[in-house]
Amino acid sequence: MIYRAHLLSPASPARLEDIPDGGLMVDGAGRILAAAPFAALQRLHPGEPVQDLRPAWILPGLVDLHAHLPQYSAVALDGLELLPWLENHIFPLEAGFADPEAAVPAARLFFAHQLAWGTTTSVAYLTVHQEAADRAFREAEACGIRAILGKVMMDRHCPDALREDTAASLAQSAELCETWHGRDGGRLGYAFTPRFAPVCSMDLMAGLSREAEKHGAWIQTHLSENLDEIARVRELFPEARDYTDVYARAGMLGPRTLLGHCIHLSEGERAVLREAGATLVHCPRSNAFIKSGIMPLRQWLAEGHRVGLASDVGGGPSLDLWGEMAAACDQSKQRWAERRAQLRRLEALDLDADARGRVAEALGLHAHAPITPVEAFHLATLGGARALGLERTIGSLEPGKDADFIVLDPRAADPLADRAVLRPEEVLSRCIYRSTPGMVQAAYVRGRRVHGR
Fold it and tell me: Model's pTM, two decimal places?
């Protein structure tokens, strides 16, 4: 099949590949054979069937690197910071998944809404319940989304209804991994999922690290989201240099490790994470909602970290990854403006240039340039794919990759939809800042339509 539409794909963090009248040729196994001008494809393959999707656009599917499937019904419960929010809203909700059937409608709705927003690759936390996790995997398999899921692991300092025996937690997680990791040609994957260090023993974290390495699976957890959380880790692990060192001592850090939030990282921690090749997952709206802070995204990128983007439902308010792109851009602008204003005030003080420079350095006042919509789009597509080690499989419209793509009507985000087509960067910016539920007309995973008519 040749899908005819305007093709738009990330070529680099700052550049788009744009084919106004393009053809995306997909084989029967769901792989991209070509992404080229339609006229050229038609000349080379005159007998191939064509699905004309114009005036729609085709983009690679989005990659959500961090969300909590069971928390979807708890979105937008405002007023608390991380630890009390977990205790008052989240832990009671997750305890209900002791009934495995609770996972079926929750997972069905969660994946359907991700696909409706254009997310074709979902990385999600489940609960501590093995049977409920199995049900969630079955729903992912049935709906066709590419999904990397994991049963949450907690063996201390959490409610009795959610606290696990260490050995049982490891055994159940390993069994789920053996059942689901790599299923359907790799469309489904497993992530060992310690919630975060405060609720996990060192024995649990070291054990899951060995299991993840054994199975070639991912590890996902949280790191340095909230200042009270960091203080709690310092109390529980006095032998560790810092929060990151806790995970390093457990053997959890590597190129298949996904670390949510990563807002308050020291220079030493960043060096360890960069050396390990771990991914820092940016959750901008959740970071603001739970009053955790603003990730210095531009600085982390400039330092060479692997970074991806995520919705972090239910801390984040929705599964709209376009909204997360907008928030990433807006927060980087806000950070840039605040630093610039602080530097102006510093310049007004009676200090020589060297002293001003030392103060600016000590306070981290260097104003890194804001993130652009094109860069945010890269984080949500090819950047997410690279975070998972799947950049040869998904993330852009390139021959040899799986046909994970979405069909977009950018007019849905345009207040003057009948105007002449804007430049691709302008269309992308409008879609990011004015995302609407009807914008994504269809989503495909490995060439199979999994959303839309």
Answer: 0.94
